[in-house]
Design goal:
Elements: H1 26-59, H2 64-92, H3 94-112, H4 118-146, H5 152-180, H6 183-192, H7 200-207, H8 212-222, H9 239-260, H10 263-270, H11 275-303, H12 305-325, H13 330-346, H14 351-358, H15 364-379, H16 381-391, H17 397-416
Helix pairs in contact: 1-4, 1-5, 1-6, 1-7, 1-10, 2-3, 2-4, 2-15, 2-16, 3-4, 3-7, 4-5, 4-15, 5-6, 5-11, 5-14, 9-15, 9-16, 9-17, 10-11, 11-12, 11-13, 12-13, 12-17, 14-15, 16-17
């Protein structure tokens, strides 16, 4: 493994100033649209729980530890679902499994709205996590294989930016529902809307086909020219890459979830903001996240995957500390929400492209699904840890968030230095 910030040549660089979106062929555009839409509705469904948490704390008398457990269970299930979906996508095709994951998370998000007890919500939300994790694992592989190398980072980053779109839509819908409906109905309505993404399956079935890279790889496996065993990611020669990539994404997601799960509650209960007031702060964060995704995609292609990861990790760690641990005014907190969202979200822009470039074609779904979702599973313990530190060690919620996030982003910097640079690698030769 290389330990310096070397940069692989960016194979197939696009001509300067060219509008890359216009050069995509129809199949690339349809795939980009499907992946963008799928990830946006994924975000909408995911953020439903953090947004209704203040209501559930009041209506059901839940503790922060119980809420943290539901958040963690969702993310652990999503880790399992992501790895399983990656393995299945290597066997049965990207498009078919993508449809399955969307159906699963839509149905069980709807089921969350029918829950009568915290235990029922825990079960429904955990099952929703299986589809939530699987959708990203398969969708990111699909877009990475479909788009040419010169645009891969930008395309995957653009898809990643749809997370901010879905998040923003969830905040807007929650503000409307919480303002005009009684609490005991509004939180259920948020979850029931989660069934709508199932309509996306119709578009995918009619418009998208598996990438040629995947088709050729499966043919090579069928002829016995390549191994299709998903356990090959743990064999000598691949094990080091698998372990380091898993740790990288543990840090990224641990930091993100430490604040993402608890942000609405932190703003309402510790900063004493109203629903509409906290919505304004969240929108500053979301706007920053959207721009961060787009800039992160550009920087991932321009600077290389590892340099971009390190840059964003340092920025995110510093801003989380200021946002949660320093005695700043509400006005300064509002302003800091933009760069905090920028760095915390932009760090993910190169994730899909980087993982796609690390693993050979026949193991791409398995490797990408495992590493990203191992990181999600371990990172999922951070929301629960925040709740435990706050409840049992009597730390202020902001302090608990800041400590957990700082540890996570320090891990990103250290591990990124140990991984190879893959920018521009041609997947046809992988």
């Amino acid at each position: 493994m290389k330990s310096t910030l070397d940069a692989a040549p960016a194979a197939g660089d696009a001509p300067a100033g060219e509008n890359w979106l216009r050069t995509l062929n129809p199949n690339e555009k349809r795939t980009l649209a499907a992946s963008f839409s799928g990830y946006a509705v994924d975000a909408f469904d995911y953020y439903t729980l953090p947004l209704v948490t203040p209501i559930l704390l009041s209506l059901w008398g839940m503790s922060k530890t119980e809420v943290g457990l539901i958040g963690t269970a969702t993310l652990v299930a999503s880790a399992i679902g992501g790895w399983a979906a990656g393995i299945l996508a290597d066997i049965y095709g990207r498009v078919r499994i993508l449809q399955l994951t969307i159906l699963v998370f839509a149905i069980f998000t709807f089921a969350c709205g029918l829950s009568r007890t915290p235990e029922e919500l825990l079960i429904a939300r955990t099952l929703q996590g299986l589809g939530f994790g699987g959708e990203w694992a398969v969708g990111s592989v699909l877009i990475a294989e479909m788009i040419r190398p010169a645009y891969r980072g930008k395309a995957v980053g653009l898809v990643q930016s749809s997370w901010a779109i879905g998040w923003g839509a969830a905040v807007l819908v929650s503000m409307a529902l919480f303002s005009f409906l009684p609490p005991e109905i509004s939180w259920r309505a948020m979850f029931l809307l989660g069934l709508l993404p199932a309509l996306l399956i119709v578009f995918i079935r009619r418009s998208i086909r598996d990438p040629e890279i995947y088709v050729q790889s499966r043919a090579a496996v069928a002829r016995g020219e390549r191994s299709g065993n998903f356990l090959a990611i743990f064999k000598p020669g691949m094990l080091g890459t698998t372990v380091l990539a898993s740790l990288l994404f543990t840090g990224m997601q641990g930091g993100y979830y430490a604040i993402g799960v608890w942000l609405p509650t932190f703003l309402k209960n510790e900063r004493h903001l109203t629903v509409l007031g906290s919505g304004g702060y969240q929108f500053m964060f979301i706007v920053g996240a959207f721009i961060g995704y787009l800039c992160g995609a550009y920087l991932s292609d321009r600077l290389g995957r590892r340099r971009a990861f390190i840059l964003f990790a340092i920025g995110a760690g510093s801003l989380v500390y200021a946002y949660t641990l320093l005695p700043i005014t509400d006005g300064l907190m509002l302003l800091l929400g933009f760069p905090l969202g920028f760095f915390m979200s932009g760090i993910f822009s190169g994730a899909g492209a980087f993982l796609a470039e690390l693993f050979p074609n026949e193991l791409r779904g398995s490797g990408q699904g495992f590493c990203y979702n191992f990181g999600r599973g371990i990172g999922a313990t951070f929301p629960a840890l925040v709740g435990v530190l706050s409840d049992r060690m009597h730390l202020p919620l902001g302090t608990a968030i800041g400590v957990c996030a700082a540890v996570a982003y320090a891990m990103v910097v250290v591990v990124a230095l140990c991984l190879p640079e893959t920018r521009g690698r041609d997947l046809r030769q992988n």
